[in-house]
């Protein structure tokens, strides 16, 4: 009997950490002094694009100026709250109990337990207040540029000046944001907001710098959604990583799998028939392809089209003789999410072993860029 009790106790002790982890959650207890009973309040988790189909959404009603949410989580996460149709802002919530009061905005939110995440995020925003102004300046100049470019009377010089002003504002904003994130992480490596703010700079920071900063963050702070997706991007989409495999149907309904093309250099090209810059890039790709296709190179086009006939018509008109696939779900194509494509045309160059060796090669430079690789593989053969 003693041995049985001892054995059961041992099993419980072994399983206890697993059970504790599985039961981890974020509990939000909120106070809304101005809200009437029955007012609907909604919460939505902020997540990277690839995970949008799995994000947490929930709603409840306010009673006695109070509300509560219980959300499974393994680390601090960022959420947006909405009362009826009014957005009241975003807040970092930690695993454990979080008490939040909503007066006019979440700038007055506070946490009575594990408050470090939201306090850090508020401090980060306050310390880098200039970033808000720089972002606002860029977005305003972008609006001016778009409005002018779509106007009836467009002067080429004026349009060029507005475009230049917009681009300069963008560069200034992103450079300042990159410097702010780098400075924050180096000075506060253990801050629980680090994985989120670093993730937000992935597309504007050299990959080696991202990896260096990611290594500074201790493993104890790599438990939330942003940390996991940061790891996915580094392990799967950075130069030297093995490109994520996928399969989609071509125009004949035949499944084409990326890994079936191993042994060749593959340009994974994201485009769409409705995309004017993509169609222009196709001209250069069509010109380069005959020189390369019999020398260990091919192209796999992934279309973000919605309509089958439009997609097929574009392939025929542009004379795209390489592999072309699509699920005809437009921007909801899971391959687009898996490769974090935010604009098209976009591409990845993949070597015969399936490793990513280059990204977003200009179509008119493809031959010059791929030629040394092709010479290498042909010399081996």
TrEMBL record:
The keyword Cell division does not apply. It is found in: Cell envelope. Signal peptide: none annotated. InterPro entries: AhpC/TSA, DUF4369, Thioredoxin-like_sf, Thioredoxin_domain, Thioredoxin_ResA/DsbE_sf. It comes from the Bacteria. This is TlpA disulfide reductase family protein. Residues 237-379 form the Thioredoxin domain. CDD domains: TlpA_like_family. PROSITE patterns: THIOREDOXIN_2. Keywords: Cytochrome c-type biogenesis, Disulfide bond, Redox-active center.
């Amino acid at each position: 009997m003693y041995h049985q009790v001892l054995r059961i106790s041992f099993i419980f002790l072994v399983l206890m950490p697993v059970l504790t982890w599985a039961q981890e959650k974020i509990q939000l207890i909120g106070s809304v002094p101005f809200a009437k009973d029955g007012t609907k309040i909604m919460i939505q988790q902020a997540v990277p694009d690839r995970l949008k189909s799995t994000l947490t959404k929930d709603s409840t009603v306010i009673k006695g100026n109070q509300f509560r949410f219980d959300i499974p989580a393994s680390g601090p996460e960022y959420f947006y709250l909405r009362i009826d149709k009014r957005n009241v802002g975003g807040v970092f919530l930690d695993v454990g109990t979080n008490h939040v009061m909503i007066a006019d905005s979440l700038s007055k939110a506070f946490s009575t337990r594990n408050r470090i995440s939201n306090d850090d995020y508020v401090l980060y925003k306050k310390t880098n207040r200039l970033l808000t102004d720089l972002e606002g300046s860029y977005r305003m100049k972008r609006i001016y540029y778009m409005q002018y470019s779509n106007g009836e009377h467009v002067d080429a010089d004026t349009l060029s000046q507005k475009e230049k002003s917009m681009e300069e504002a963008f560069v200034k904003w992103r450079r300042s944001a990159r410097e702010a994130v780098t400075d924050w992480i180096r000075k506060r490596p253990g801050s629980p907001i680090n994985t989120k703010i670093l993730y937000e700079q992935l597309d504007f920071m050299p990959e080696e710098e991202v990896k260096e900063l990611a290594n500074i963050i201790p493993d104890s702070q790599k438990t939330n959604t942003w940390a996991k997706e940061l790891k996915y991007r580094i392990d799967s989409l950075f130069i030297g990583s093995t490109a994520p495999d996928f399969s989609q149907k071509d125009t004949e309904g035949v499944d084409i799998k990326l890994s079936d093309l191993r042994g060749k250099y593959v340009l994974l090209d994201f485009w769409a028939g409705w995309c004017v810059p993509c169609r222009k890039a196709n001209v250069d790709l069509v010109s380069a392809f005959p020189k390369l296709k019999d020398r260990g190179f091919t192209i796999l086009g992934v279309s973000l089209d919605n309509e089958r006939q439009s997609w097929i018509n574009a392939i025929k008109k542009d004379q795209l003789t390489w592999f072309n696939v699509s699920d005809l779900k437009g921007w909801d194509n899971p391959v687009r999410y898996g490769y974090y494509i935010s604009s098209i045309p976009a591409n990845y160059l993949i070597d015969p072993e399936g490793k990513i060796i280059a990204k977003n090669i200009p179509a008119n430079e493809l031959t010059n860029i791929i030629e040394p690789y092709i010479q290498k593989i042909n010399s081996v053969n």
